[in-house]
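**Tokenised fold:**
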Amino acid sequence: MILLLASAGADAQKQSPAWFTVSTGPALPVGDFGKTDLNNEGSGYASTGFHAAIGYERRSGKTVGYGVRLTGQLNPLDTRGMAESFNQARFAQYAAFFTNMVGNIPPGPTTTVVYPNWQFSKGSWKLLSLQGGLTAEWSMGKEKKVFFAPAIYTGVVYAGLPAIEGSSITDTATANMSQTSGSTFGIISTVEGNLRFMLSDKISLRAGLAFMQTTRLNFNDIQVKSTTTKGSIGSPSFSIFQSTITGRVSQQMSSLNISAGLLLRL
């Protein structure tokens, strides 16, 4: 009887290897994704945003386990950086926001004009992904209250290209440009390092740093419309030019994601 009671008590004390996880934090664009250089074909004009994730993790061995998570990320357009770049650029009488656009691009003209005082509407890159991967965990002290927990994930991502509206208005010239939004699917990968702080047998806190990157994503049938004028309306020197470009925008997205989260043992 005593042995049976001891065995029952030991079974009751066994901890579940499964966790429900939730985390969020800032998402800092890195590489071309965060650049605003019109001469760089990979510029994504992204600024610091945020990410959030919910997931399920389960330890299948002493240190190794697996997990699945649903993640969302939002990176606003760096409209100030875009304006500074456009203010210094020389444009032909047609232009595209993303210089890697390919498609129905008209030939000529060869003359270029500088348009100052650009202003852009707000918009954001959007990512929604479902990822699965491998996790690991090692205790960092005798008390086993702090754990180092690296992980690697990969999966499918849905990406949204923001619509863009921009204008430059002066007394002698104006320029207006608009670009349609778009969406596509691709592959995403994440490599991360975390610290887990055990508050109780059921609850832990976690802080981490992750590098996220997608494959190069292609957004098809993106349309850019531009209208430029020179001179004052009604004057002999007044001219107006309008153009429409339809093509494909290609973009790779990458970011450093700082996270803080909560783990609940199931």
